Amino acid sequence: WQAVGQIVISAGDWLLTASVLYLLLPPADISLPQFLQIYLLAQIAVLLSHVPGGLGVFEAVILLLLPQLPPPALFSALLVYRGIYFLLPFVLAVLLFGMQELRRRQTPRSL
Fold first, then answer.
1. How far, in Å, CA of 19 to CA of 96, rounded?
2. I need a labelling partner for 81 at 20 to 30 A (CA). Which of 8, 16, 66, 107 fits?
3. What are phi and psi of 3, to 5 degrees?
């Protein structure tokens, strides 16, 4: 049952991240299920490429498979998406780690 739970959580995560990127896209004549197919193809390309974080691969696939969207607006949406899912968690983790270290250094140690 644990494996089934992990699959469900993973599928939900991919659906939520695809939905966030879909909402960031400029208005277009594409449905969420259609976009989800493109998103999953881009994720497969990232996995096959072995590029860390899929940097550039994901964006290239999305840009190639959505030619009806203006590239500058699409690329802007992709940058915001990267910021939300990669940069923001990193910054929060660094801040939390820094706070933990400061708190640890201020607590007197008992011998």
1. 28
2. 8
3. -65, -40
Q: What is the pLDDT along the chain (111 residues), one digit of tens a residue?
A: 899 999 999 999 999 999 999 999 999 899 999 999 999 999 999 999 999 988 899 999 999 999 999 999 999 999 999 999 889 999 999 999 999 999 988 877 766
CA distance 63 to 76: 11
CA atoms of 93 and 97, how far apart (whole Å): 6
Sign of the alpha-carbon torsion through 5, 8, 9, 10: positive
Rounded to two decimals, the pTM is 0.82
Contact 19, 72 (CB under 8 A): no
